[in-house]
Write a structure and sequence with these properties.
Immunoglobulin-like, 23% helix, alpha+beta, three-stranded mixed beta sheet
Length: 159
């Protein structure tokens, strides 16, 4: 009986793996569209500069934010991590998107921020770093090398 189930499973996998692509993904335009959808990710590593390692909170909240560059500062995707260990390997993908109608594509700015609190607003004492990337990049390096001063954080909250 187990062998019969195995054959059914293998046959099902074979049958469904041989299905033709939908028409919208066929031809040159379809291939381009499919490639855009396949590349909805950015992978990389976040490190903390030596001079800021001592300033890491005991239980940090960690955000990696992807925004379109430079035309739309609204985040495309946000990855939240509690108590990360550095260096931190990350993947920001379609499952982290804020609005699933938008596509992670083209030029991006990837920002990493370590905070003492879980809020989305920047606070004084937050540690940050960013890097330019393209959707589909697999080796983005972000160094957290900036500490947000208290006065900048209060000004950004007023905006």
């Amino acid at each position: 009986m187990r062998i019969f189930r195995l054959y059914i499973l293998l046959f099902s996998v074979f049958l469904f793996s041989c299905q033709e692509l939908p028409k919208e993904f066929q031809g040159e335009e379809g291939k381009k569209k499919l490639e855009r959808l396949r590349n909805q990710f950015v992978k990389g590593e976040v490190v903390v500069s030596e001079n800021l390692k001592a300033k890491l909170p005991d239980k940090p909240f960690f955000l990696i934010i992807a925004v379109k560059k430079p035309d739309n500062p609204q985040p495309l995707a946000v990855l939240r991590v509690k108590n990360p260990e550095f260096p931190y390997r990350f993947t920001v993908s379609g499952k982290h998107k804020i609005d699933f109608r938008r596509i992670i594509e083209g030029e991006l700015i990837i920002t990493a921020r370590v905070s003492k609190n879980s809020g989305a607003n920047v606070s004084g004492g937050d540690l940050m770093g960013s890097a330019n990337a393209k959707a589909g990049d697999k080796d983005v390096k972000i160094e957290i090398s900036i500490e947000v001063p208290n006065e900048e954080a209060s000004q950004s909250k007023q905006l």
